[in-house]
Amino acid sequence: MRAVPLSRYLVFFLIAGGGLAIDLATKRWMFDWLGRPGGGTHWIWADVFGFQTSLNEGALFGMGQGMVWLFALLSIGAGVAICWWLFIAGAARQWVLTVALSGIMAGILGNLHDRIGMPGLKWRGRPYDLHAFGDPVFAVRDWILVKFGSWPWPNFNVADSLLVCGALLLAWHAFFQKEPQGAVRQHES
Questions:
Q1: What does the pLDDT look like over 62-80, one tens digit per residue?
Q2: Is 75 inside any structural domain?
Q3: Is residue 41 within 8 Å of residue 122, measured between CB atoms?
Q4: 160 is catalytic
Q5: Which one of the listed residues 47, 114, 129, 160 is annotated catalytic?
Q6: Which of 91, 92, 147, 159 is 20 to 30 Å apart from 15, CA to CA?
Q7: pLDDT in tens, 128-152
Q8: Does 60 reside within a domain?
């Protein structure tokens, strides 16, 4: 088994670390600028694209509201699996997998940061009557708003975008990238 080149480690940490930094910085900036959810919308393109803060205690499209700790544990497991696949199993020898999984890792870490309460937000009561005033917020901070006609897409953030782009690149690799000739022979023996 060949070792994973040092360049793949560098790419992984640059994309994952850079993506995480951009995600956390933009979340902080938007929440400082627009305030907490309910503070209104800043439209860039009227009724199509803008910025609006929201807090999501669930996952994709808000599913699983209140299952924050399950999603946090799944995120940790996915992060460990990505590191294992890339650097122990050797998937990082392929550039496409390194880049795709680096983006996914950045997204995982950005949303995990929020899920475990690292931003230090506190619930303020209404409109979140399910939480007592002053309780810590264990929810992902979202701020990008896109509307299709009268239908608003659920708010999202840079971490979500990195997750989706990484997953699309991973799917493209799975369906369209040919396996190296040597890898086919290894599977046959």
A1: 778 888 899 999 999 999 9
A2: yes
A3: no
A4: yes
A5: 160
A6: 147
A7: 567 888 889 999 999 999 999 889 8
A8: yes
